[in-house]
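WARN no homologs supplied; continuing
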Amino acid sequence: MYERFFQLERTPFAMVPDPECVYFAGQHADVIGGLVFGVLSRKGYLVLTGEAGLGKTTAVAAMSHLMGESSVQTSLILNPILTGPEFMEMVLLNFGFNKIPASKAQRLKIFQDFLIRSDAEGKVTALVIDEAHKLSAELLEEIRLLGNFEAADHKLLQMVLVGQPELHDRLNLPELWQLKQRIAIRMSLVRMDRETVAQYLIFRWNKAGAAGPIPFTEASIDAIASWSKGIPRLINAICDNALLIAFSEETRTVETRHIREACKELDLPISPIKPRFDSISYAAPQVVPPREPATGKPVQKDAPKPPPNAANNDDTQFLGEEKQSLFKKWLGRGKE
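OK structure emitted
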């Protein structure tokens, strides 16, 4: 509704996860890169946790979008509240099976044949389960048993469990100790700080096709960071409503009062905003350099030497050609 007023091509703070609008910097970049690396390297079990609204589903969507251009075939389960037979049926359906036998033994056999055939063709097969903290102990044990499908030197099925911090409690159950032992990579998302919130707003605004700078004042950014508690989903909701309020007033500047009104409409608690240190002017302490006792001249320090081969250092050298291409593409997307 307000997009034309602010000269935008699309909604900047949509609530639906969009892999094209992932903030490829900081922790989200690390998480997406870690997931892609873990799957392509056939690590087996990967776990991603974080509070609700921190962008886990968006990160998974970005991972799937990125790997969709490689040799990875993915089954994504968004609702894991299923029985054992329903779970296996959903896995097979997502991998393109139409005729699914009723027998569990037959289902496992056709799935095993599928994994072996895919591996022989050079394909990586990944099963991604969102909301994994809702999985029953029974289903988690079934997932552990799926990990028994393996070749001589790697797992035939890569499994990514994504959920809220309660997932750790589930994996700490005594009966799931064997599954916990198999987890190769653990990652987590945390809330954004004020600086990251500001960078996130700029990124989303530019992705929406904006011709100018963000309309939020410094004070309103302080309010967004404080009242959203650094949770991306709340940041999107607050900003979307605040832009709508500013549009209704026909003003292209979003101030603190607009943020406050948006929070009230969303029934979010509003607490006093602490001033930032960078808004306080102070005199920097004068540093006196050490001097030579005999001459009184300043001591000359040798410049630090760069590590060997620093100019040629490449964090992707240990990866294969396909993985290097994916990682370099992933790193480049953050600079758009």
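Confidence is low (pLDDT under 50) at residues 277-287, 303-319.
OK
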